[in-house]
Design a protein that fits this description.
Elements lengths: L2 H9 L10 H11 L3 E5 L3 H12 L6 E3 L9 E2 L2 E4 L9 E5 L8 H13 L7 E3 L2 H15 L1 H10 L3 H15 L28 E5 L5 H9 L5 E5 L3 H11 L6 E4 L2 E2 L4 E6 L8 E3 L5 E6 L1 H4 L7 E4 L5 H6 L2 H7 L2 E5 L6 H12 L3 E7 L7 E7 L6
Parallel strand pairs: 1-2, 1-5, 2-4, 5-6, 7-8, 7-14, 8-9, 10-13, 14-15
Antiparallel strand pairs: 3-4, 11-12, 11-13, 15-17, 16-17
């Protein structure tokens, strides 16, 4: 069976086979006992579970959220309460944020705090992150199966096809990856696909504290230059410290990248995988630019993007730069389900004579990278 056939078989499976019924059964049982149903977290995953419960006939009564609750705040037509102001008994409370459902020490500290506030342990249910990823990553792909299959046909080698299929299967079936992944130290470096020379100029979108800049400086000490984008004060200072002694000229830019210039709120949750632009006023205000605006005086030949789900917007803001300079692109695909098909198909339509590959780094749900390599840079 080809990888295309495997993907087709996976994505035509009824969605009910992928999403656990446990939470629905718990909610229905609670309602039958006269309890209200609430979701902790009025953000991305809270909305996903709200829609899932509603689609399955379960009415959600309210949200609880420490960041945006209180003062008559509504999200999706539902009131959002601060924990101190919310009903604390005769409810079933589902905990949705990924940060509270991961590490046991974080979850236990959160639970202890909720119990101190008057909530009952037996009325609190932590939703597994793996189940949330079925909704956030898997379901968009199931609903857009034909687009995912188009992407599969775009990919140039069986390694890419294997990674793409295996990644989706692991998400939807909540199982470990089957395909062997690459060491994360090689992320964004694919020596079997391309090589960089002293004429290359590297652009790092989502530079964080400079880890990828240092990686490229080690592997490619002869690069002509680097531009590194990181929007927040603390990480930008760490980025500046990281590059201080590099011989390669590095231009640090304290901005995020998107599809238009302006400003946005950036939610800082204390770790590299969670900091992101948000559509509300929770977080710090940052400046946003486009690569077309910022790179008008350089000729980038390699662009990496790991910008927490805003990769497609950043690519749209780099449209002219990419068309003019034909850079190698390394774009993260793992932040949103839609990215698995929207980003590759956008680049397919934008670019001429490019080759597309997927590589997977680490055995987790993170670090899935799409490489777009112009024909003249592809190693034979």
């Amino acid at each position: 069976m080809t990888f295309e056939d495997k993907l087709k078989a996976l994505l035509i499976t009824p969605t009910s086979s992928f999403v656990t019924q446990t939470y629905i059964d718990m909610a229905i049982n609670a309602v039958s006992k006269g309890k209200q149903i609430a979701l902790y977290g009025a953000g991305k995953w809270g909305f996903l579970w709200l829609n899932y419960f509603c689609e399955n006939g379960v009415k959600i009564d309210f949200f609880i959220d420490t960041g945006i609750g209180g003062n008559g705040v509504l999200r999706e037509g539902l009131p959002v309460f601060l924990p101190d102001d919310a009903t604390k008994s005769n409810i079933l409370l589902f905990i949705t944020p990924s940060g509270l459902n991961g590490k046991s020490e974080v979850r236990n500290a959160f639970l202890a705090d909720m119990l101190n506030k008057g909530f009952k342990e037996e009325e609190i249910c932590f939703i597994a992150n793996s189940h949330s990823r079925v909704l956030s990553i898997g379901m968009p792909c199931v609903k857009n199966a034909s687009k995912c299959i188009d992407v599969m046909y775009m990919l140039q080698d069986n390694v890419s096809k294997c990674y793409y299929n295996d990644y989706l299967e692991s998400i939807l079936k909540v199982k470990p990856l089957s395909a062997p992944w690459l060491d994360v130290k090689w992320q964004y470096i694919a020596p079997e696909l391309f090589e960089l020379t002293k004429s290359d100029y590297f652009v790092d979108c989502g530079a964080y504290t400079g880890d990828t800049v240092l990686q490229f400086a080690e592997f490619y000490p002869f690069l002509s230059g680097i531009s590194a984008f990181e929007p927040t004060d603390d990480t930008f200072k760490m980025l500046q410290n990281s590059i201080a002694k590099l011989s390669i000229p590095v231009r640090p830019i304290k901005k995020a990248v998107g599809d238009e210039c302006g400003s946005a709120f950036f939610d800082i949750l204390g770790n590299q995988t969670a900091n992101r632009i948000v559509d509300n006023d929770r977080g710090v205000l940052i400046e946003v630019t486009t690569l077309d605006t910022e790179l008008s005086e350089v000729s980038p030949t390699y662009i990496k993007m790991d910008v927490e789900g805003f990769e497609l917007a950043a690519l749209r803001g780099a449209r002219e730069t990419i068309k003019k300079n034909r850079p190698i692109l390394a774009i993260c695909l793992y932040h949103k389900g839609e990215d698995l098909y929207e980003i590759p198909l956008y680049l397919r339509d934008l670019l001429t004579d490019y080759n597309f590959f997927v590589r997977k780094y680490t055995g987790t749900v993170f670090e899935l990278v799409l490489y777009a390599v112009p024909a003249e840079r592809l190693l034979s």
